Amino acid sequence: MVDDVEEGVSLEKLLEDVNQLAIDQEESLDEFYLTDRKWDIVRESEVERNIILLGSGYKIYTKTWSCAPRQKTRQQLPSLIEAFRIACERLKSAQLRKEAEVLRRCLVIFATTTGAAKERDLLAKIRCRVVFAEEAAEVLEAHILASLVPSVEHLVLIGDHQQLRPNPSVYDLAREYHLDVSMFERLVRNGYPFSTLKVQHRMNPDITENIIRPYFYPELIDDASVLEYPLVPGMEKRCFFWMHEIKMAVELISYLTKQGIGFDE
């Protein structure tokens, strides 16, 4: 029946032939109903088949329609990314030129070593000739080197290599490769010429007399201004030593050495 329907047999003609066949064969109403129901089944199957075909066609159409622009976009994406990268570089270059033009008018530019390394391109455009590094004994050598652009002619390191050292993040690397030694300390210990302040204008004379001159800088002189510092109200003297902590530290070191721990550990 499905084949007949597909060949163009009309519904009325097919139903008429079925009814005539039922009359000729004297079929019962129930049998005729079954015959009529068979046609209903055929008709419903035809409708369902058309719906399935329509759905399949819709899926193919939507898939084709959605894939076409997607494929086109995928082909254009590399060129768009490259154009965006070029635009970002041009914007960054324009910003650097603008900032460099402003900073060239300044006599002194302050920055941390991290900021100097981050803005190295900007410093190169400014063409600084002199760099001062404060607390240079506490700065990693790599940070100092990162701050030096090709235009630098003089590097002035200010600090005290006999006090605090740099503090690397990885202890094992610091110990193996001496990362805790600053450029300042390395140059001094290798005989590079340096200058030491002879007069101090800040510390109380009791501090220089009991700590600084005996252990660090024997030739350090107190300026006359520090000799006029008044006593702290309520205090007997200006310099105190916590003897109980000193004794405890000595006993702790003695105990550890008796356990086999060397002084270099």
From TrEMBL:
<dbReference type="GO" id="GO:0004386">
    <property type="term" value="F:helicase activity"/>
</dbReference>
<feature type="domain" description="DNA2/NAM7 helicase helicase">
    <location>
        <begin position="70"/>
        <end position="166"/>
    </location>
</feature>
<protein>
    <recommendedName>
        <fullName>DNA2/NAM7 helicase helicase domain-containing protein</fullName>
    </recommendedName>
</protein>
<dbReference type="Pfam" id="PF13086">
    <property type="entry name" value="AAA_11"/>
</dbReference>
<dbReference type="GO" id="GO:0031380">
    <property type="term" value="C:nuclear RNA-directed RNA polymerase complex"/>
</dbReference>
<dbReference type="GO" id="GO:0031048">
    <property type="term" value="P:regulatory ncRNA-mediated heterochromatin formation"/>
</dbReference>
<dbReference type="InterPro" id="IPR045055">
    <property type="entry name" value="DNA2/NAM7-like"/>
</dbReference>
<dbReference type="InterPro" id="IPR027417">
    <property type="entry name" value="P-loop_NTPase"/>
</dbReference>
<dbReference type="InterPro" id="IPR041677">
    <property type="entry name" value="DNA2/NAM7_AAA_11"/>
</dbReference>
